[in-house]
Amino acid sequence: MATKRIDLPPGVLQPRDAVLNMAPYSPPTGGRAGKVRLDFNENTVGASPKVIEYLREHLSEAGLAIYPEYSEIKQELAEFFGVEPDDFILTNGTDEAIQVLVNTYIDDGGEVLLLRPSYAMYRFYSEVASAGIREIPYRAQKLAFPLEELLDAIRPSTRAILIANPNNPTGTGTSRAGIERILEKATNAAVLIDEAYYEFSGVTALPLLNDYPNLFVSRTFSKVYGMAAMRLGCLFSQSGNVDFLHKAQSPYSVNTLATLAAHAAIQDKSYIERYVTEVLAARELLYVGLEKLNIGYYESKANFVLFEAGSRAIAVRDELRRRGVLVRDRSYEIPGCVRVTVGTRDQIRRFLAELEQIW
User: Fold this and answer.
1) pLDDT per residue as tens digits for the range 83-112
2) Domains along the chain?
3) Which of 51, 145, 228, 287 fits 174 for a cystine, CB–CB 3.0-4.6 Å?
4) CA atoms within 13 A on the CB side of 327
5) pTM for the predicted model, two decimal places
6) Residue closest to 276 by CA, chosen among 12, 40, 20, 45
7) What pLDDT is recorded for position 213?
8) Per-residue pLDDT tens digits for 295-316
9) Alpha helices, DSSP H, located in the chain
10) Cα–Cα distance, 251 to 173 (Å, whole number)
11) Euclidean distance between CA atoms 3 and 26, whole angstroms
């Protein structure tokens, strides 16, 4: 990328060209308290009560004074996910998983394949690393996963492919067979399958871990587990790869509160099952409601749905916010589209009622 020179204010140090050329990422996270949170794909009712109970019982002044220890929680998580403790690292949310993978495998100018649109942090960390980025668009009409187009784009020089499955913000994805085709074609690349919304789709690449040395899978506790404030994720791969991931990661990036919360969260499987069942029912309710209003939408495998608001996308978002319901404008990358998180059926009924008033 050509050097971009601009006049900086006095006292401002010239950054690297990669940072200078980046667009800032500023998610609208302020002023959300007390509103119906259908904007960030979070768990809309909160973490399991057992998480809070466990934290209250196990937090202590002495425990907060020492650096985190991971061996016990890694053993528990390994059993929970059906892998070995040496097959993954703990990360500070999925964001750090992406950062560590990029830092481990991408040199200056290294080729990274991304889909468009997709999770913004894939491009963010690739740009910081001065990667050479190529993007493959989701298919028009239904925003279907562009499997054949992606396969055609893979070259021997491709160093990483970063995929959300299902994808944010489209809600669409590919099958395990599709993932295998990508892995078999991209033998020189680190292939990340980000499964932040796995619980809603049921499609996972984790069982393929031992078969493909170029496979990396990430999971997060920020979505269905309701622990976005804790910033906890996992990045899985074969143990030989994990050794190198450890070298590119700071030693204490995951805090003790997050590991304590994870211990309780994975014990309460029924809570997660109930929440997923509720979301899937609410998603169907949302489809029916949008159809009654004659509003187009894209079918989703995740806990969010894109709907078509046309030229009114931003106005609809702002008016819903004024009425206490938060949704996310995505018209800057998918013209006319707004994304709504699927929470409970009551929350979706509230959303539909407010939308009907302004539609």
Assistant:
1) 999 999 999 999 999 999 999 999 999 999
2) 17-46+270-358 (3.90.1150.10), 49-267 (3.40.640.10)
3) 145
4) 31
5) 0.94
6) 45
7) 98
8) 999 999 999 999 999 999 999 9
9) 17-20, 49-58, 61-64, 71-81, 93-105, 120-128, 147-153, 176-185, 198-201, 239-247, 256-267, 269-292, 313-322, 345-358
10) 33
11) 24
